[in-house]
Amino acid sequence: MSANWRVSVDPHRCIGAGICAGTAPQHFQLVEGLSTPLAETVPPADPVIDAAESCPVEAITVHDSSDQRLIAPEP
Amino acid sequence: MTDSRQVTARPYPFAAPDRLHLDPHYAQLRRDQPLSRVQMPFGEEAWLATRHEDVRVVLGDARFSRALSVGRDEPRTTPRQQDLGMLAMDPPDHTRLRRLVAKAFTARRVELLRARAQQIADELVDELVKAGPPADLVEQFATPLPIQVICELLGVPFADRHNFHTWSEAIVSTTSLSGDQIQSYLENLWGYIGELVAVRRREPIDDLLGAMVRARDENEDRLTEEELVQLAAGLLAAGHETTVTQIPNFVYVLLEHPAELARLRADPGLVPSAVEELVRYVPLGAASAFPRYATEDIELGGVLVRAGEPVLPSVGSANRDGEVFTDPDRLDLGRDPNPHVGFGHGAHHCIGAQLARMELQVAIHTLVTRLPGLRLAVPEPELTWKSGLLVRGLAALPVTW
Question: How far does Cα B96 stand from its chain's mean position?
Answer without folding.
Answer: 22
